[in-house]
Structure of Phosphatidylglycerol--prolipoprotein diacylglyceryl transferase:
Amino acid sequence: MYELLLNPIAFSLGPISVHWYGIILGTAALVGLLLAVQEGKRYGLSPDFFMDLLLLGVPSAIIGARIYFVAFKWDEYKDNFLDVFKIWNGGIAIYGALIGAMICGILYFRYKGYNPWRILDICAPSLIAGQIIGRWGNFVNQEAYGGPVDESTLRNTLHLPDWIVNQMNVGGGFHHPTFLYESLWNLIGIILLFVLRRRAFMRAGEMLMTYFIWYSIGRFFIEGLRTDSLAFDGPAWLVSIMNGLWSPMTVAFEPGNLDAAYGDVRISQLLAVLLIIAAIAIIIIRRVTGAASERYADPIINRRTGLPAGVKPGVDPDAEAAAPDIAEKTIIEPREADRKDTPEHKDEGIKG
């Protein structure tokens, strides 16, 4: 008899229970922040810029994720509206989180005067790092798992440790640890992004598009193993396309049995395919039209000031580098040669 080894509640403070799910998501957000701050320093972006983004982006991501999930399962929530707010029990969708976070981010970047493509590129590794860590919240909650699998496959073929294998015993049977598959896929993805962002051929926006392509490929195939996918009843031709694209996986895996009441087209799979197509098209179109003239390695220019990020109007950059504490007092003045024709000099000449 296998028992749940991990208690979803990490600890309690009086009547308040702190869930592992929240701790893991908080850790994911913190790691993402640190990655963005470190890369942002190369372009003169301050840590406060990303801290403000985090404070705005995390609530936006959670709200977007919950709205997305609840929208496709409204029949289960319409009579229990208060359950909509119980996110500690799981039930948030990563695509909804991305939609919420990106809408918030784009508005924030424009408000600050930056090209959203440039900042989103910097944040791409942070997004995938958050997913690497965040999936372990599903592990603790025993959710987002795959179809049935033999215990021997988990222990002897995949060589998973006991604490993972035992946690995958849900409802008296063992299941595919799809959270682990996706976490490992994204781990390879973040390494890929770290390598690509130092390549001279990368243009503005292409780090973000690479993230979407990589994540969506993995999500498409891993989603097919799950038994709790959000789905809808689609036309026969669409069902055939989705099944055909997933068919290479049948060499080693059985598809997860999806409840007919949910539908026959997995929403996440369809979105993954559309994202891959859209990301590739955006890369090609932006290159062909010249919209991607900026490279990832180019300085990030603030559109409001016309200056590189981190350079303040009226402040001498050389003085700021040499003595940051007095930089704000070091105002860039025109050279004497450039001052001769100013109105003040002309008045002085007349008076003389």
